[in-house]
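Following up on my earlier message about acetyl coenzyme *A. Here are the inputs again, as you asked, copied directly from the submission form:
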Amino acid sequence: MKDTLKTATLTLNGQTYELPVLSPTAGPDVIDIRKLYAQAGVFTYDPGFTSTASCDSTITFIDGDKGELLHRGYPIDQLAEKSHYLEVCYLLLYGELPTAAQLEDFETRVTRHTMVHEQMQNFFRGFRRDAHPMAIIVGVVGAMSAFYHDSTDINDPWQREVASIRMIAKMPTICAWAYKYSIGQPFVYPRNDLDYASNFLRMCFAVPAEEYEVNPILARAMDRIFTLHADHEQNASTSTVRLASSSGANPFACIAAGIACLWGPAHGGANQACLEMLREIGTVDRIPEYIERAKDKNDPFRLMGFGHRVYKNFDPRAKVMKQSADEVLELLGIEDNPTLQVAKELEKQALSDPYFIEKKLFPNVDFYSGIILEAMGFPTSMFTPIFALSRTVGWISQWKEQLSDPAHKIGRPRQLYLGETRRDYVDIENR
Ligand code: ACO
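Thanks, got it. Here's what our run produced:
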């Protein structure tokens, strides 16, 4: 962050205030209002943070107009094509691409932490069988702070590191077990000779009675889904993690908070909602009816998997995901999948409709991911857990960055109060 010597001038009640302007390495300048209240006695108002930078960061950058997503400077399409999830995890966590030796060491460390404490199985079994896997995952990740006491001291860099590795390593096991529990099958333990994605697929689909042969093309597609969701700068769940962490909460509690936020249909829940919508539309001839509904201000219906707060041109992740959907469906011999046909036609029609053009609404990462996951055999209830698994590294990287900043302080937004002013209590018989 450079101090540019530029200032913005605010005139208020006849007084003039000079506000410093900070220059990022990429993206728009930022007006520094940290001293505004002390100097001018006013707050700023920005619900939804549409114009407010809540922190500085060196991890991920999105150029919404160009449709560009960079992790530590590297474009997501290059990472999706040439790299793989654990290497991207290393990049996000430590800032640089690893050497071969560093990568091997990192993969070994992650692999050695994939098992969860045996007693944690009791937590899974405490849930109703029909619980949504996200409900189980929020609970179990929160409960990790009761099992891993030696990695909850946020002031100890070594403990922070161990907690980070533990969460990246254990999330596939926790998500797979949430799924296994929901379908009444026994938990499958991780296998350390498999790569990260293959291990997850096996823990989801193997049963003691029959081994699961991991198809390398499906494992690659799974890995790509993880990579495409790994981080996305200061989105709602990441901001939730940062806010929870700002009070000094332990890492497992913070990530559980992020998972809870991700679950909502406007965020990580959109992939489930999108596939359900595509199925509900069912056939191509019904698309115009749904497009009309999405445009109708009196109808709360929105095209799920469409639109984004930051991307206003295209979501670069959606491009890779669409290509991956084609590959996976071809491999599985289901190219004429009706859901994919509806998705492609819906995209085509929406993108040529003036409403969507004017509002710069494009398919986001979730528009095609559900089709791939369904083809792999996942039920819709597992879509958001897979997003949570993938995003864990992003949350952790942002959490570590926040804690390593000596100037970090508790997050405490102000408000524009519009309620009653002071009034006296009225006894119940007089109301
Ligand atoms: N379908 C129809 N209209 C839409 C859609 C949509 N999917 N998305 C936005 N709009 C319209 C809004 O009605 C609004 O119209 P108006 O200006 O006439 O009031 C305008 O576009 C702007 O929308 P906002 O909701 O103000 O934009 P915001 O940046 O707050 O919301 C969001 C972004 C939440 C992603 C929104 O586009 C949406 O709800 N999309 C569907 C859910 C979804 O796919 N979420 C996944 C997000 S990506 C992720 O988390 C991985």
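One observation from looking it over: Strands lie at 2-12, 15-23, 30-31, 60-63, 68-71, 74-75. Hope that helps, and feel free to reply on this thread.
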